Amino acid sequence: MKYIYLLLTVSLLASISCKKDKKHNDSFTVTIVAQSTSGTATTFAATVSNPNPDTQPFLCKIPTDIGRPKYNCTDAVYLRNLPADMRIIGKRIRFTRYKDYGQNGLLSSIHHAHELDVYDPVEIR
Question: Do 113 and 100 meet the contact criterion of CB atoms below 8 Å apart?
């Protein structure tokens, strides 16, 4: 019985361990396209340059015969925490560190873009 409690305790601790922000060797480039109407005033939609769901885990694949929202998970993200000087439509940004919050649960489509907090945004000129 002692071993069962030990096993349960270890399993519980392993499942609640904190997740670190994802750091990738690859950088991701996005272009700010619009302020989000579904998030906060600091949430902006951005299209991903060269979208590839195999190397960009915040993207997805949607069959072509299914309807999609304007900013969907195949080629866009919502950036939640951009500094004020980067919240400009048309600005290109590169980043490597982010936290993916997934899709906003309040939106009606399961294909909406993921919401990200970006920790090392750099403007591309």
Answer: no
Rounded CA separation 112/114 (Å): 7
**How do residues 40-86 score in pLDDT, each as one tens digit?**
677 898 999 999 888 889 888 887 767 667 778 888 999 988 999 99
Question: Model pTM greater than 0.85?
Answer: no
Identify residue 35 by its one-letter amino acid code: Q
Does residue 85 sit in helix, strand or coil? Answer: helix
| Rounded Cα distance, 17 and 51, in Å | 31
Contacts of 35 (CB under 8 A, 6+ apart): 41, 43, 44, 45, 87, 89
- Residue matched to tokens 């919240």: 87
Please tell me what DSSP assigns to residue 122: E
